[in-house]
Amino acid sequence: MREKGFTSILLILIVILLAAGGIYYYNNNLQDEQLNLEIKTEDSRAQTYKGSSFLFEYPTGWNLKEDGQKITLEKLQELEANGPYPAQTYTNTITITTTNNTSKTNLDDWLVNLYGDDKVLLPLIQKSAKRIKIDNADALEAEIPGSGGYYTHVAIVMYKDKVYEVNAWGLEGGSRIPEAYQDILSTFKFNN
Q1: Kindly report the CA angle at 170 between 168 and 174, in degrees rounded to 5?
Q2: 31-66 pLDDT, tens digit each
Q3: Which letter does DSSP use for residue 148 in this model?
Q4: Whether the predicted model's global pTM rises above the 0.85 cut
Q5: How far apart are CA 137 and CA 163, in angstroms?
Q6: Rounded to an integer, what distance in angstroms lies between the CA atom of residue 176 and that of residue 158?
Q7: What does the alpha-carbon distance between residue 160 and residue 54 come to, in Å, rounded to a whole number?
Q8: Neighbours of 92 (CB within 10 A)
Q9: Residue 103 near residue 111 (C-beta atoms within 8 A)
Q10: From CA 152, how far away is CA 163, in angstroms rounded?
Q11: Which of these, 20, 45, 70, 140, is most buried using a 10 Å CB contact count?
Q12: Cβ neighbours for 34, distance < 8 A, ≥ 6 positions apart
Protein backbone atom coordinates (compact mmCIF):
# COMPACT_ATOMS: atom_id res chain seq x y z
CA MET A 1 0.00 0.00 0.00
CA ARG A 2 2.78 2.33 0.98
CA GLU A 3 4.52 1.59 -2.32
CA LYS A 4 1.38 2.51 -4.27
CA GLY A 5 1.11 5.85 -2.42
CA PHE A 6 4.78 6.60 -3.07
CA THR A 7 4.34 5.82 -6.79
CA SER A 8 1.32 8.14 -6.99
CA ILE A 9 3.22 10.98 -5.33
CA LEU A 10 6.19 10.38 -7.63
CA LEU A 11 3.91 10.49 -10.71
CA ILE A 12 2.28 13.71 -9.50
CA LEU A 13 5.71 15.30 -8.96
CA ILE A 14 6.84 14.24 -12.46
CA VAL A 15 3.66 15.72 -13.99
CA ILE A 16 4.18 18.99 -12.05
CA LEU A 17 7.84 19.18 -13.14
CA LEU A 18 6.94 18.51 -16.77
CA ALA A 19 4.19 21.15 -16.65
CA ALA A 20 6.54 23.69 -15.05
CA GLY A 21 9.21 22.91 -17.65
CA GLY A 22 6.67 23.32 -20.45
CA ILE A 23 5.51 26.67 -19.09
CA TYR A 24 9.11 27.86 -18.69
CA TYR A 25 9.97 26.78 -22.25
CA TYR A 26 6.81 28.41 -23.69
CA ASN A 27 7.45 31.71 -21.88
CA ASN A 28 11.09 31.88 -22.99
CA ASN A 29 10.25 31.08 -26.63
CA LEU A 30 7.39 33.59 -26.65
CA GLN A 31 9.75 36.31 -25.37
CA ASP A 32 12.30 35.41 -28.06
CA GLU A 33 9.62 35.64 -30.77
CA GLN A 34 8.47 39.01 -29.43
CA LEU A 35 12.07 40.27 -29.42
CA ASN A 36 12.57 39.14 -33.04
CA LEU A 37 9.32 40.80 -34.04
CA GLU A 38 10.46 44.08 -32.50
CA ILE A 39 13.79 43.90 -34.34
CA LYS A 40 12.07 43.17 -37.67
CA THR A 41 9.68 46.08 -37.15
CA GLU A 42 12.55 48.44 -36.40
CA ASP A 43 14.51 47.34 -39.51
CA SER A 44 11.50 47.66 -41.81
CA ARG A 45 10.55 51.23 -40.92
CA ALA A 46 10.13 53.41 -43.94
CA GLN A 47 11.16 56.96 -44.53
CA THR A 48 8.71 59.36 -46.12
CA TYR A 49 9.47 61.81 -48.90
CA LYS A 50 6.99 64.68 -49.10
CA GLY A 51 7.31 67.12 -51.96
CA SER A 52 5.00 69.88 -53.12
CA SER A 53 2.88 67.63 -55.36
CA PHE A 54 3.34 64.04 -54.09
CA LEU A 55 4.68 61.86 -51.31
CA PHE A 56 5.87 58.26 -51.02
CA GLU A 57 7.58 55.90 -48.59
CA TYR A 58 10.89 54.17 -49.17
CA PRO A 59 12.98 51.81 -47.00
CA THR A 60 15.74 53.03 -44.73
CA GLY A 61 19.23 52.63 -46.13
CA TRP A 62 18.44 54.37 -49.41
CA ASN A 63 20.08 57.73 -50.18
CA LEU A 64 17.67 60.29 -51.61
CA LYS A 65 18.78 63.28 -53.71
CA GLU A 66 16.46 65.91 -55.11
CA ASP A 67 17.45 67.95 -58.14
CA GLY A 68 14.69 70.14 -59.55
CA GLN A 69 12.11 67.88 -61.21
CA LYS A 70 14.10 64.68 -60.52
CA ILE A 71 14.44 62.58 -57.39
CA THR A 72 17.11 59.88 -57.26
CA LEU A 73 17.27 57.08 -54.70
CA GLU A 74 20.37 54.88 -54.52
CA LYS A 75 21.53 51.93 -52.47
CA LEU A 76 24.70 49.88 -52.84
CA GLN A 77 24.32 46.10 -53.03
CA GLU A 78 27.05 43.49 -52.86
CA LEU A 79 26.60 40.79 -55.50
CA GLU A 80 28.20 37.39 -55.00
CA ALA A 81 30.25 35.76 -57.72
CA ASN A 82 27.98 33.88 -60.13
CA GLY A 83 29.51 31.53 -62.70
CA PRO A 84 31.87 33.55 -64.89
CA TYR A 85 30.86 36.84 -63.21
CA PRO A 86 33.05 37.98 -60.28
CA ALA A 87 31.68 39.45 -57.06
CA GLN A 88 30.87 43.12 -57.49
CA THR A 89 29.16 46.10 -55.96
CA TYR A 90 26.01 47.17 -57.75
CA THR A 91 24.14 50.43 -57.27
CA ASN A 92 20.38 50.02 -57.15
CA THR A 93 18.87 53.17 -58.60
CA ILE A 94 15.33 54.51 -58.68
CA THR A 95 14.44 57.85 -60.23
CA ILE A 96 11.23 59.83 -60.19
CA THR A 97 10.89 62.60 -62.75
CA THR A 98 8.10 65.11 -63.19
CA THR A 99 7.31 66.60 -66.59
CA ASN A 100 4.63 69.05 -67.67
CA ASN A 101 2.09 67.47 -70.00
CA THR A 102 1.14 70.61 -71.87
CA SER A 103 0.16 68.67 -75.01
CA LYS A 104 -2.26 66.48 -72.96
CA THR A 105 -0.65 63.29 -74.33
CA ASN A 106 -2.21 60.00 -73.17
CA LEU A 107 -0.26 57.15 -71.54
CA ASP A 108 0.18 55.04 -74.69
CA ASP A 109 1.35 57.99 -76.76
CA TRP A 110 3.72 59.07 -73.99
CA LEU A 111 5.33 55.63 -74.09
CA VAL A 112 5.67 55.84 -77.89
CA ASN A 113 7.20 59.33 -77.57
CA LEU A 114 9.77 57.99 -75.10
CA TYR A 115 10.80 54.88 -77.05
CA GLY A 116 9.30 55.26 -80.52
CA ASP A 117 12.66 55.73 -82.26
CA ASP A 118 13.67 52.18 -81.33
CA LYS A 119 11.63 49.93 -83.64
CA VAL A 120 12.91 46.76 -81.91
CA LEU A 121 12.57 47.90 -78.31
CA LEU A 122 9.18 49.62 -78.54
CA PRO A 123 7.18 46.44 -79.38
CA LEU A 124 8.86 44.60 -76.47
CA ILE A 125 7.97 47.42 -74.10
CA GLN A 126 4.40 47.61 -75.37
CA LYS A 127 4.03 43.84 -74.96
CA SER A 128 5.18 43.97 -71.32
CA ALA A 129 3.13 47.07 -70.47
CA LYS A 130 0.26 46.67 -68.07
CA ARG A 131 -2.27 49.15 -66.78
CA ILE A 132 -2.17 49.84 -63.05
CA LYS A 133 -3.54 52.44 -60.65
CA ILE A 134 -1.33 54.68 -58.55
CA ASP A 135 -3.32 56.68 -56.00
CA ASN A 136 -6.42 56.09 -58.17
CA ALA A 137 -4.72 57.65 -61.20
CA ASP A 138 -4.29 55.64 -64.40
CA ALA A 139 -0.74 54.43 -64.89
CA LEU A 140 1.24 52.21 -67.22
CA GLU A 141 4.03 49.92 -66.00
CA ALA A 142 6.49 48.19 -68.31
CA GLU A 143 9.75 46.24 -68.25
CA ILE A 144 12.40 47.49 -70.63
CA PRO A 145 15.17 45.05 -71.63
CA GLY A 146 18.65 46.50 -71.78
CA SER A 147 22.13 45.33 -72.61
CA GLY A 148 24.23 43.07 -70.42
CA GLY A 149 21.27 41.61 -68.53
CA TYR A 150 20.16 44.97 -67.16
CA TYR A 151 16.46 45.77 -67.11
CA THR A 152 14.50 48.89 -66.32
CA HIS A 153 11.04 48.96 -64.85
CA VAL A 154 9.10 52.11 -65.54
CA ALA A 155 5.76 53.32 -64.24
CA ILE A 156 4.22 56.31 -65.96
CA VAL A 157 1.45 58.16 -64.14
CA MET A 158 -0.56 61.07 -65.49
CA TYR A 159 -2.16 63.34 -62.95
CA LYS A 160 -3.68 66.70 -63.77
CA ASP A 161 -1.23 68.44 -66.13
CA LYS A 162 1.89 66.45 -65.19
CA VAL A 163 3.51 63.13 -66.02
CA TYR A 164 5.40 61.26 -63.30
CA GLU A 165 7.87 58.56 -64.32
CA VAL A 166 9.21 56.10 -61.75
CA ASN A 167 12.20 54.14 -63.10
CA ALA A 168 14.10 51.31 -61.39
CA TRP A 169 17.17 49.56 -62.78
CA GLY A 170 17.95 45.91 -62.09
CA LEU A 171 19.68 42.80 -63.37
CA GLU A 172 18.64 39.44 -64.81
CA GLY A 173 15.16 39.99 -66.16
CA GLY A 174 14.04 42.15 -63.31
CA SER A 175 14.79 39.65 -60.55
CA ARG A 176 17.01 42.20 -58.88
CA ILE A 177 14.62 45.12 -59.27
CA PRO A 178 14.74 46.73 -55.85
CA GLU A 179 11.76 46.05 -53.60
CA ALA A 180 11.82 49.77 -52.85
CA TYR A 181 10.37 50.32 -56.34
CA GLN A 182 7.19 48.45 -55.38
CA ASP A 183 7.19 50.19 -51.98
CA ILE A 184 7.26 53.56 -53.72
CA LEU A 185 4.50 52.65 -56.18
CA SER A 186 2.23 51.26 -53.45
CA THR A 187 2.61 54.33 -51.19
CA PHE A 188 2.74 57.05 -53.88
CA LYS A 189 0.09 59.69 -53.13
CA PHE A 190 -0.69 63.04 -54.71
CA ASN A 191 -0.89 66.03 -52.35
CA ASN A 192 -3.52 68.00 -54.24
Answers
A1: 100
A2: 443 433 333 333 456 899 999 899 999 988 899 999
A3: G
A4: no
A5: 11
A6: 27
A7: 12
A8: 20
A9: no
A10: 18
A11: 140
A12: none
